[in-house]
Amino acid sequence: MQNLLLLAVALLITACSGADERVLIVAHRGASYDAPENTIPAFNLALEQGADALEGDFFITADNEIVCFHDRTTGRVAGTNLVVEESSLEELRQLDVGSWKGEEWAGIGIPTIAEVFELVPPGIKIFLDIKSGPGILPRLYEEIDKSGLKDEQIVLIAFNAEVVRQFKEARPQNKAFWLSGLQHDEHGNVTPSPSAALETLEKIGADGFSSHHGLITPEYIEQILDAGYEYHVWTVNDPARAHELVGQGAMSITTDVPLRIREYFKEMETLSRR
Question: Among 28, 213, 232, 243, which one carries the catalytic annotation?
Fold first, then answer.
């Protein structure tokens, strides 16, 4: 039975091998399963684990600096509870955002976007998940221009459609994807519907759509792709589910466990060649 299962998997891999060749493994907040999220150690570890791209979250501070942090407030990972956008960079720098993950990470601080850009090597992309509103964009443009990274290395992602629209208007040379969770409405239909998502993508000039994997279907993905947009998916930590989504057309897999996904894909590729 196990041999038959492996054979079936191998045949599936063969059928989607073209998709595997182009899919990006994106490290969600760095290698955030193994290291404190959105920190320099997490990003460095993700690179060691073979990630094709890094993903981080970014807020503007009260003194017009951009920091890499996920939550609106700092309490979950720092204990001390500050509102990121109402705090100065100096205040945020005093926080320990590593100890919650383990004593070996004690003393790790919140990085600036410039510090994150500095560690992105040639050939690796950085997905910028913008958590602030459009007011962050002028400062973001400055930091991008100073980074020395190539246009194709920088991808903006945001739930805020207006952030995506303004970014694409100012920097059409960079890709930008609209993020959305999927949920059921009172009638059991998935929202946003594919048609609603496509309407938003066209309106804001996005290059693609990125959703959580929970309720996405092959038919939904097909409609996005057929309309000429890219499809990307988050946060997928189960390797089999990741591979299934690649076969359905996902062009990147955002994951907390880039090494686990990378090793599984390699194993499946090996099986397909037997």
Answer: 28
243 is catalytic: no
The predicted-structure confidence for 18-44, as pLDDT tens digits, reads as follows: 344 569 999 999 999 999 999 999 999
Please give the Cα distance from 242 to 267 (Å, whole number). 13
Dist CA 146 CA 151 (whole Å): 12
Neighbour tally for 34: CB within 10 Å: 18
pLDDT digits (tens, 9 = 90+) for 185-237: 999 999 999 999 999 999 999 999 999 999 999 999 999 999 999 999 999 99
DSSP string of 230-256? EEEEE----HHHHHHHHHTT-SEEEES
Please give the span between the terminal C-alpha atoms of the chain, in angstroms, as a whole number: 18
- List CB contacts of 194: < 8 A, sequence separation 6 or more: 219, 220, 223, 224
CA-CA distance, 52 to 258, in Å (whole number)? 9
Structure tokens at 4: 């038959």
Active site residue 213: no
**115 with 40: CB under 8 angstroms?**
yes
Q: Please report the sign of the dihedral spanned by the C-alpha atoms of residue 127, residue 47, residue 214, residue 269.
A: positive
**CATH, domain 24-272, list 3.20.20.190, 3.20.20.70, 3.40.309.10, 3.90.550.10:** 3.20.20.190
Q: Active-site residue among 70, 213, 232, 243?
A: 70
Which sequence spans correspond to the domains of the chain? 24-272
